[in-house]
Specification:
Helix content is 11%, strand content 55%. It has 2 helices and 10 strands. It has a 10-stranded antiparallel barrel with strand order 1-2-3-4-5-6-7-8-9-10. It is elongated. The two termini are 14 Å apart.
C-alpha cells in the first residue's frame, strides 16, 4: 500500500489549483453545478457482492477524471483545465446481512483546492445463483468544496444490475437520479455577477457502466459515469 500513498501524494500535487471565473450569471452557475456538483457525486464502484458482516472491511483508493470541457470558458485556467482529476479515498463495511455502508473523501491540499466527504448505503436485494445476477439499490449524499468558491451538496439514488461473467470478473450497470444544491460565493472576491452569495439547484439522470476484476483480496474496478458530463474512474481496493 506504500506505493499507493506515494501515487496519491504525486497525483495531488501534480494538479493545478482549480478556480472558477468571476461574474458568473445564473445560467452559467447552473451549467457549472451540473458538471462539477453532479460530477463529484458518489460513484458506485465497490465490488458487487455484499461485503459481509464478520470481516467485510474494504479499503480503497480511487482516481476520477471529470470532463469539464462543457464549462471550459468558465474556468480561470481554461487552457489546462479541460479535465479535472482527483483522488478519492473510500472505506466500506458490511453492517447487516446484505447491507453495506461506505464513506469516502477527497483529501484537501492548498495547491489542489478541492475537498469532499460523503457516505452511501447499499442494499443488496437479489442474488440469483442459477443465473449469476445481482440487483442492488444505493442511496448517497456528499458535499464538495471547490476552492471555497462553490460548495455543492449532492443527493442521489441508484439501482444497479450486475452479472458475474466469471467468478473473478463482473460487469454491472447503474441507473438513477442525482440532485445538487450549490452555493456560490459572492463579494468582490466571489464568482457571482450579483456580488451576493447565490444558491442554485440542478438535477439529472445518472447512468454508469463498470467492470471489476478480483485477485484474492484485491479488486480493480473501472467505470464510466454520466450525469451532464462523463466521469472516468479507476479504483484499487482490498477486502479484509
Amino acid at each position: 500500500m506504500v506505493w499507493l500513498l506515494q501515487l496519491l501524494f504525486f497525483f495531488t500535487f501534480a494538479q493545478a489549483e482549480f478556480r472558477l471565473q468571476s461574474q458568473l450569471t445564473e445560467s452559467q452557475r447552473k451549467d457549472v453545478l451540473k458538471v462539477l456538483g453532479l460530477g463529484s457525486s458518489n460513484k458506485n464502484i465497490s465490488t458487487m457482492e455484499p461485503l459481509g458482516t464478520e470481516s467485510g472491511l474494504e479499503l480503497a483508493l480511487a482516481f476520477e477524471s471529470l470532463d469539464t470541457s462543457d464549462i471550459r470558458s468558465l474556468i480561470a485556467d481554461s487552457e489546462s483545465q479541460s479535465t479535472l482529476s482527483y483522488p478519492r479515498i473510500m472505506i466500506g463495511k458490511g453492517i447487516y446481512d446484505r447491507t453495506d455502508m461506505f464513506f469516502h473523501f477527497i483529501p484537501y491540499t492548498a495547491t489542489f483546492g478541492i475537498s469532499e466527504f460523503g457516505a452511501s448505503l447499499r442494499f443488496n436485494f437479489l442474488r440469483e445463483d442459477s443465473a449469476p445476477l445481482l440487483l442492488s439499490g444505493l442511496v448517497h449524499a456528499n458535499s464538495t468544496n471547490f476552492n471555497n468558491q462553490l460548495v455543492s451538496r449532492n443527493l442521489g439514488i441508484d439501482m444497479m444490475l450486475g452479472i458475474f461473467v466469471m467468478p473473478s470478473l463482473s460487469v454491472f450497470s447503474t441507473l438513477g437520479l442525482g440532485l445538487a444544491n450549490g452555493k456560490f460565493v459572492g463579494g468582490t472576491l466571489g464568482v457571482t455577477d450579483s456580488l451576493d452569495a447565490e444558491k442554485e439547484t440542478v438535477e439529472s439522470l445518472h447512468a454508469a457502466v463498470a467492470c471489476t476484476q478480483k485477485w484474492d483480496m484485491f479488486t480493480l474496478t473501472a467505470s464510466f459515469d454520466y450525469y451532464k458530463a462523463p466521469v472516468y474512474s479507476l479504483k484499487l481496493s482490498a477486502l479484509f
